[in-house]
Design brief:
The complex is a heterodimer. Chain A is an all-alpha fold. Chain A has a domain of about 30 residues. Chain B has a single domain, classed as PhyR, sigma-like (SL) domain (Butyryl-CoA Dehydrogenase, subunit A, domain 3, Up-down Bundle). Classes of the chains: A mainly alpha, B mainly alpha. The interface between A and B is medium-sized, with 29 and 38 residues.
């Protein structure tokens, strides 16, 4: 038997057990689960954006109060006064 | 904004319903072959297909011209491949049903045979999907075909002989 004949025989074997009756609740269940996945994704995306926004605000507030770019006052050299 | 979302949702629901009406029969048959269950009693295949369709539904708005049938089939195959190893064998778990034509094969052989012969996926694509080399896929497919054809010719007379025994 050549390769093509063998493949065709197996294809027939696979096709003949076909019933093709799909239970109607399958579509409803798929839509329900898919919709839930979509909603969860939306919520997760919103939470992530919220987190990023909060982090940005926190950083700005910290930067404005701590002013890390200003040179800190020197402690080692005494201030030069009175001459 | 909200109106646009609502119209998008109704369009998605309509298109998805048409897709399921057209594709679910063939996909359910493929899933039943994969799980090796009887054609009229296939809870695992239904569950597998439901999860795959739900995944397709969730990705529907981002398809951008990709074939939803292809996407569902890919998800079905990878999910079955991932789930097969801990369904395999275990005591009292999902023995292949004798009514299934693929009952004598292992889950991996069933998967490759269904993808290549029932669904007509090319050898290279099957290999890439499952993370195997094309040579290995060809070898497994060949072995599975041989097993099936030998069984199909082998025990058939035995069944007939058994039926002739008077009860």
């Amino acid at each position: 038997m050549s390769g093509n004949d063998r493949d065709a025989a197996v294809r027939r074997l696979l096709e003949e057990a076909s019933t093709r009756s799909v239970p109607p609740e399958l579509h409803a269940e798929a839509v329900r689960r898919g919709g839930r996945m979509l909603r969860r994704r939306t919520v997760a995306r919103r939470l992530l954006w919220l987190l990023m926004f909060a982090a940005a605000v926190a950083f700005t507030v910290w930067a404005l109060t701590a002013r890390p770019w200003v040179e800190p006052p020197s402690d080692t050299t005494p201030p030069l006064t009175g001459w | 904004m909200r109106e646009r979302q609502a119209s998008q949702a109704t369009r998605r629901a309509r298109e998805f319903e048409a897709f399921v009406a057209g594709a679910a029969g063939r996909l359910l048959h493929a899933a039943t072959l994969l799980t090796a269950e009887a054609p009229d009693d296939n809870p695992r295949a239904r569950r597998l297909l439901t999860l795959s369709l739900a995944h397709t539904y969730a990705c529907w708005d981002r398809l951008r011209g990709e074939d939803p049938y292809d996407l569902t089939r890919q998800y079905l195959a990878t999910r079955f491949a991932r789930g097969a190893w801990h369904h395999y064998g275990g005591p009292g778990r999902s023995r292949p049903h004798p009514a299934s034509p693929l009952a004598p094969l292992s889950p991996q052989e069933r998967l490759i045979l269904v993808l290549m012969l029932h669904e007509g996926v090319a050898e290279e694509q099957t290999a890439a999907l499952l993370g195997l080399s094309p040579e290995r896929v060809r070898a497994i497919c060949h072995r599975a075909t041989t097993t099936l054809l030998h069984r199909a010719r082998g025990p058939a007379p035995a069944v007939r002989a058994a039926k002739t025994v008077p009860s």
